[in-house]
């Protein structure tokens, strides 16, 4: 399996994402949206960074169960109930990402939404990975 991250010079420099990712491998893993739910199904964390850390941890736990690692992520979509807050906290969220997932960034998008399935959730992440 290999992922190649492409960031063309004519595009703005990416911060915390890759503009494109090409993938070769034999197994795709589609990861369901993960929020800051604990093992009992309760949303934990009051702030966006707290919830982001739990949601990302949940996404990575699902990926690990499928035999993958953060480096296998080809695409992640982030759904945020407050995009302005997400932008304001981007440096802190980036530190959480790097601590949990490293510096091999997938292709990413952040999409604003009025609410998520769990009303207390501030952020949700889904994605897919490519494995051998």
Structure explained in plain terms:
This protein has 132 residues and is of the alpha+beta class. Helix content is 27%, strand content 31%. It is built from 3 helices and 6 strands; from the N terminus they run E-E-E-H-E-H-H-E-E. It has helices at residues 48-65, 83-88, 90-101, and strands at 2-6, 20-24, 27-34, 73-80, 107-112, 123-131. The strands form 2 sheets. Strands 3-6-4-5 form a 4-stranded mixed beta sheet. A two-stranded antiparallel ribbon has the order 1-2. Helix 1 (48-65) runs parallel beside helix 3. The chain starts with a strand and ends with a strand.
Characteristic key phrases:
31% strand, alpha+beta, 3 helices, single chain, two-stranded antiparallel sheet, 132 residues, four-stranded mixed beta sheet
